[in-house]
Amino acid sequence: MKSVNTRLPVLLSGLVCALALSGCTATAKSADKQATNNKVEIDTNPYPSTYQPLESTPTLIKNVTLIDGVGNKIDNAMIYFAEGKIQAVGTSLDVPADAKVIDGEGKWVTPGIIDNHSHLGVYPSPSTRSHADGNEMTNPVTAEVWAEHSVWPQDPGFGRALAGGVTTLQILPGSANLFGGRSVVLKNVPNRTMQDMKFPDAPYGMKMACGENPKRVYGEKGGPMTNMGNVAGYRQAWSDAQDYMRKWERYEADFDAGKNPKVPKRDLQMETLAGVLSGDIRVHMHCYRADEMTIMMDVMKEFDYQIGTFHHAVEAYKIADKLAKNDVCSAMWADWWGFKMEAYDGIRENIPAVHAAGACAIVHSDSDLGIQRLNQEAAKAWSDGQRAGLDIPKEEAWVWLSANPAKSLGIFEQTGSLEQGKNADLVLWNGDPFSTYTKAEKVYIDGGLAYDLSAPETWPVSDFELGQVGEGDVK
């Protein structure tokens, strides 16, 4: 009988499989190589806004005294807005026949108030330790944290601020750290999530702090303990950020040259600081004393970045010329100082004095109470200036509440003044907004009626305010 080699088919079969596997492996390696050849890019907006404007109706408000937010006042004015935008401002306007008409005789219209220093949502009401999420007091440099991840949308303060005419606000981390983290700009339309309130495409801010707070928090935790320690901490962090930027620049240059370089390790802290150095993130710095603000402007020049705004700045009047020269705003209180040594040397004329020197002055709250009456805070500062001989018209003073904070936040092209094409963010007041007795009658955000004094049933109510289920209420 002829013998048959039964191993041959098995060997051939194995060879086919081996060749196939070899081909698969080669294909996989090729795919892996191709994958590594894709340039790594960081998503700079991983939490985009999901804000949707309120439903709006084409509206004409007539017979009002109008302050446009950029220094002008118009008597017997008319303002027409539709599709979320300001369409026209003047004394005689042609509008569609179906537009809603509001006769505002004896009333005033201003841009919506913008508070560029608020902690609503990160220090919500009622003030409890379990909800105190504004300060990551674990390290003097926490640039990697983002305030938006602490915002509690159910804070009743948002609705209270809306009743005071606030249409936009910046939520900041606290001031315990040298670098406290990123801020977020919100539309003051109370909603379910932070992203539903997030101002579309508003630049991020970086909260920094100088002076007593970082020393008090970290003096016995390894430092800084002194002002010179604070400054050393800023400088080291900026130097580290420059190194981080160089690594990524080298990676991109080598990639573009076809060298297939190793991707640098991502560092969230350095990423935010690099965003400041590249001009994409705005610096908002808690600082009281004139000498400290001057030093910080020197550090700014050393590392080639821009401080957008000093916050609190109770001694800004001493260096108003330097602030103007360096294009740095000051966000200030009207009459709050003396509560600690660095806040000792304040004056009532601080805001008008800074304004009169040609620098950028802003009225801010830093308070869940003050944010409800920012028009009165501006009125106090204005009247203090008048008594000191600083004759600033009311229409010019209103820039402290709208145009200047909008510029501070990088959103002036969208809001902050009543100009054609801008967002219809405005307030109809039942009298002169510089009067203690005046209230916001209607507040519009993107043309939608967000608050109506005459309709309490429409006022926003936080879930937190609805109360608790009591015994016997549940079946």
TrEMBL record:
One term of GO molecular function: hydrolase activity, acting on carbon-nitrogen (but not peptide) bonds, in cyclic amides
Entry protein name: Amidohydrolase
Cellular compartments per GO CC: cytosol
The keyword Glycoprotein appears for this protein: no
Signal peptide range: 1-28
UniProt source species: Alteromonas halophila
The keyword Signal appears for this protein: yes
Chain segments annotated as coiled-coil in the UniProt record: none
PANTHER family (UniProt xref): COLLAPSIN RESPONSE MEDIATOR PROTEIN, HYDRANTOINASE/DIHYDROPYRIMIDINASE FAMILY MEMBER
Keywords linked to the UniProt accession: Signal
Domain Amidohydrolase-related: start-end pairs: 387-438
Cofactor(s) for this UniProt protein: Zn(2+)
Domain of life: Bacteria
